[in-house]
Every structure is written in C-alpha cells, then in structure tokens.
Design a protein that fits this description.
five-stranded antiparallel β-sheet
C-alpha cells in the first residue's frame, strides 16, 4: 500500500503526521535522558551509602572487622559499590548509544522531511500555475467568442439597413472577420493550453506526487524501524549488566553464608576474657565466739587483729568485675588490664616493635648496599655521606630491640603467671617488692588465693591472698609493711545520700550518718571511711561531705 496512490490528496495531513513522528522521537529521547539521569543519581546515592558505612581508619569500627559478620557487611558494601558501578554503566550506555543516536537521527530526519515537502510544494505550485494559465486562456477564448458574435450581429444589422453607407457596411464586415479570427486564435491557444495542463496534471498526480509521497513513506517507515531498534537496545543496555549485577548479588549471598556464629562468639571470649578465676566461697564468720576470727580472703571486710597484712594507705582488695573506672591510657606494661587482655596487648606491642625493627633493618641493609656501590664507584657519591644515617638506624634498632626485650619480659611474666614488681605508690598495686615476691613464691599457695584483684578505681593487680601474707615473715621489710595497726582517723564526713554497698570493699551508709575518714580520695572518686573498729570500707566521694583535720590536709 502506497501513500502516493492512496493518499494523493492528503498532502497537509501527511505533513502534520510526519511532524508528529519527529515530535514523538524527541519525546522518546527525553524519556531516555531522564532514565539515564535517574540511573546516574541512583549509582551516586549507592556509592555514597557504601562510603558512609565503610569502617573509619584507626577507629573501633576497623577493629570490629575481625568478626565474620562485620567482614560480611564490609563485603556487602564493596559489592554494593560494584553494583552502583553497573548502574553508572547503564547511564553511560544510554547516553552514548541511544541518546546520541536519537539526536543525530532526528536532525537527519528533519532535513530529509524538509526537502521532501519542499519538493512537494514546488510540484503543487507548478500545477496551480498551469491551472491559472488554463483558466486565463479559457476566459480569453470566451471573451473573443462573445466579441466575434457582437461584431457579426452589428455587421448584419448595418447590412440590412438601407440608410447605412456601403463604406460603413464594409467596415463592419471587416471588423466582424477580425473578431472571428481572434476567436479562432483564442480557441487554438486554449486547446493547446488545456492539452498541456492535462498532461502536467496527469504527471503531477500519477508521477511526481506519488514519488514524493513514497519517499516520505519510506522516511516514516525508517523512523518507526529505528525507534523499534532503539527500544530493543534500551532493554539490551540493562541485559548486558545483569550478569555482573548477578555476581554482585551472589557475592553478597556468599558473604552472608560466610558468617561463622561460633567464630564470632569465640572472638568475644578472646577479646574480653580476663583470665581471672571466679571468687571462692565466703567463709562463715562466727561472731558468737569471743575468740579472734580468722581472716577470710573473700569476706566483705577484713577484721582488726592478728594476721592483718593490709598496709597503710593500701585499699582492701575486692572482686574485680564490679567497679571499673577508666583512668586514661594506663601503665606501659598494661598491668591495669586482666591477665588475658594484658597478654594480648603485650603480644600486639611486641609484633609492632618487630615490624618496626624489620623496617629499620631493611633500610640499614639498603644503605649498606648503597655505600658499597659508592665505594666501588666513587663518581656516584660519597660513601661517608650515608654513615650518619647508618649510625642513626643502628641506634634505632638497638633501642627498639631493648624495648622489645622489655615487653617480652613482661609477656613472660604473664604467661608464666609470675608476680610483677609494680610501683608501691600506686593504690591499685597489691604486690610487695622483689624480696616480698620471692618470699611469697616460697610460701604454699591456697586455692584461688593468688587471683587478681581490683581496687575501687577499676585497675587490676596481682594481689597476694591475705592468708598467704599472714605466713610471710620478712624482717627486712620497711616499717610501713610490718605495721598491723589500723589506719588513723584523719577526719570526719557526713553522708549526703544513702549508699548501698553491695560490692566487696564498700560499706553501706544512710543519709545523714556521720563516719570517720581514714583515707581520703586519691583521685579515683572513692573515700575510705570507718563506722567502728570492725566496720570500714569505701564510699563514693560524691556521696559525702568530707571534713579533714588540719594536719591531714597539710600532709
């Protein structure tokens, strides 16, 4: 079916339809552009989302990556980033392969359509001009015929009139003949013009217009075909990335399958295990007997009397899990940590030092080789120029090795469960000096008597049991360690609030109660008070209104 034969008289409608076709192409182009922008924006948002939840460097989030669930989440973020990349590919392909081709094709189609309809307008104008010429020739022939008839009637009238001269009659006859000749000439011209118009009209409607309309039809068919091809390509752009997107999703699924529940729970044990033994049973203390009570390691408070080994200014030991206070970075040997955590920190420090040592050694070897090259080839450099750096590296290596040996010694103490020699002025330390440590090692240990203790400030120590300390005889100790007298009263205090002292080493007080102060707050937030000779313990300083004696404040 051809537009040239079926739509020969629908020039205006074809012009409108082809214009609509171009507008539809432009509409589809805008649709693809918006889809590409959406894909790009979606990819950007996915990348920002992935970046937002990435673990920050040198933070606790980075440390959490040891858990398989955290590793799985990190893998999910990485796969999501790749997933976003595929949406960027979709956006790029839509822009480069479809939008660009649509824009180019629309421009070509506009030019082609313009040329076809320009040719059609020329043909239409030509046939209209021919029609006007035919009409003019027809009107001229009609006018000449009427003039000839009037001239003939005028001649016949004069010829019948006897009063008209012969000359007038002859003149009328000549005029009539002239008019008839003009009419004959107009007839001949009209006939030839009509024949010519009919021929041109036939060519116009059966040759020129069909050819032009056929070209327009071909152009329209190419437009529809091109649109269908680009629609397929639109789908193919997505289809090309589906395998990679599938791999991303498979990676997320595999990451989820790699989560090891038992492993994660074991890591929690490794991360927080203290290495302490659970506290032993509390011994019964018979207050009905007037005899001297035996000191119990796990009793809530130590009584006055024989066997009291607590030194002046040293807080009573208490169970480690209850009160913990963060006092900063802690000592260099990590003695403020539980044994198991201390061992891990020491091992980590040793590994870091070994890496630094290896790095320095590698640099020294490289400089040594460079010096050898300079010695063999003096023109390349002065061998003595690297000596200062070599000396510096050697000093660094020696310093790092000494530091590493120091930490290895502390690690050996932890792994061998050897008592450490800590600063005697720290309140959390419950260990004597090296002589005390030696004598304690020679004393039989009671079960759970050498377990680590915690002072009210939350630090951990390796404190000797009270019963073991009773058996220790060290005449060379200072008087402070041999003094078994109770701590002197250095002031009084009034309880501002009621405090329930459930933890070992603490004491319960009621609001308004007046007590004696035997040890002031050392900066850890706890004050040691005494209600009677046999009842004393720690109370939060914020719960008390403390009034120290003048000599105590000066000291």
């Amino acid at each position: 079916m051809s537009w040239g034969t079926e739509l020969w008289d629908q020039y205006d409608n074809l012009e409108k339809h082809t214009q609509w076709g171009i507008e539809f192409l432009d509409k589809y182009t805008k649709f693809v552009k918006e889809r590409a922008e959406i894909e790009y924006s979606y990819a950007k948002q996915l990348r920002n989302l992935s970046k937002k939840y990435q673990p920050k460097k040198n933070s606790k989030e980075e440390e959490d990556q040891k858990y398989t669930s955290c590793k799985s989440f990190l893998t999910t973020l990485q796969e999501l980033n790749d997933y976003a990349g595929q949406h960027e590919v979709i956006s790029e392909n839509l822009t480069g392969h479809i939008i660009a081709e649509l824009t180019r094709y629309m421009q070509e189609m506009k030019q082609e359509r313009k040329s076809y309809f320009h040719e059609g307008r020329k043909a239409q104008q030509h046939i209209e001009t021919s029609w006007k010429q035919l009409e003019a020739s027809k009107r001229k022939f009609e006018r000449d015929c009427k003039e000839a008839d009037r001239a003939q009637q005028y001649f016949e009238k004069l010829d019948a009139d006897i009063n008209v001269t012969k000359a007038d009659v002859e003149k009328a006859r000549q005029q009539s003949n002239l008019r008839h000749q003009m009419a004959a000439d107009s007839k001949s011209d009209y006939s030839s013009t009509l024949q010519k118009f009919n021929q041109e009209q036939h060519e116009h409607y059966f040759t020129h217009i069909p050819n032009i309309f056929q070209k327009i039809q071909d152009m329209e068919e190419r437009r529809i075909k091109k649109l269908a091809e680009l629609m397929k390509k639109f789908a193919e752009v997505d289809r090309q990335v589906i395998p990679i997107i599938g791999k991303c999703l498979d990676g997320i699924t595999a990451a989820a399958d790699s989560v090891d529940v038992k492993r994660d729970t074991q890591l929690v044990v490794e991360a927080f295990k203290s290495g302490f033994e659970p506290p032993g049973d509390i011994e019964f203390e018979d207050f009905s007997q007037p005899m001297q009570r035996t000191v119990s390691e796990s009793s809530l408070s130590n009584s006055k009397g024989e066997g009291r080994s607590e030194t002046k200014g040293k807080p009573k030991g208490k169970l480690w899990p209850f009160i913990k206070k963060n006092k900063g970075s802690g000592p260099e040997d990590f003695s403020n940590l539980p044994p198991e955590q201390r061992r891990k920190k020491l091992q980590q420090k040793i590994d870091e030092l070994n890496k630094e040592i290896q790095k320095e050694v590698d640099q020294r070897e490289a400089l040594t080789k460079m010096k050898d090259v300079y010695i063999k080839n003096p023109q390349m450099g002065d061998p003595n120029s690297v000596d200062p750096r070599l000396s510096e590296l050697s000093q660094n290596i020696e310093r790092l090795r000494q530091e590493c040996q120091k930490f290895e010694g502390w690690l050996a103490e932890v792994e061998g469960r050897l008592p450490t020699k800590n600063d005697m002025n720290r309140r959390q330390s419950g260990v004597y000096d090296g002589q005390s440590t030696q004598s304690t090692q020679n004393t039989p240990a009671v079960s759970n008597c050498a377990q680590d203790r915690e002072s009210p400030d939350g630090s951990y120590t390796e404190e000797q049991s009270q019963e073991s300390q009773v058996k220790v005889t060290a005449p060379e100790f200072d008087d402070d360690f041999d003094d078994e007298e109770p701590l002197p009263i250095i002031g009084t205090c009034t309880a501002l609030y009621t405090f329930e002292g459930h933890n070992e080493g603490t004491i319960s007080v009621t609001e308004g109660e007046v007590l004696n102060v035997i040890e002031e707050d050392k900066g850890d937030g706890w004050t040691r008070v005494r209600r009677s000779e046999d009842e004393e313990g720690y109370v939060p300083t914020s719960y008390l209104d403390v009034c120290l004696e003048t000599n105590a404040k000066e000291s």
